[in-house]
Amino acid sequence: MIEGVVLYFSPCGAAAHIWCVLSESPLCIAYCEDFPELWDSLQVGSRVQLRVKPMGALMRVFEMRLFALETAGSG
Asked: Which superkingdom, per the lineage (predicted)?
């Protein structure tokens, strides 16, 4: 899996544009319909782990997980 950060959402909120560490095509797109269980948790700046596949000039996300953030003092 690769790492990425949510940059912005489409005006209708149905697509998240994610900057990822792929040098060939660093902009990836995730669609609400593919991740209904995660969608309400995503925000601009969310760190995610992704699996992507080519979709024209962009990469479409087909698997996504949010990074689990530890609270201060845990661990």
From this structure: Bacteria
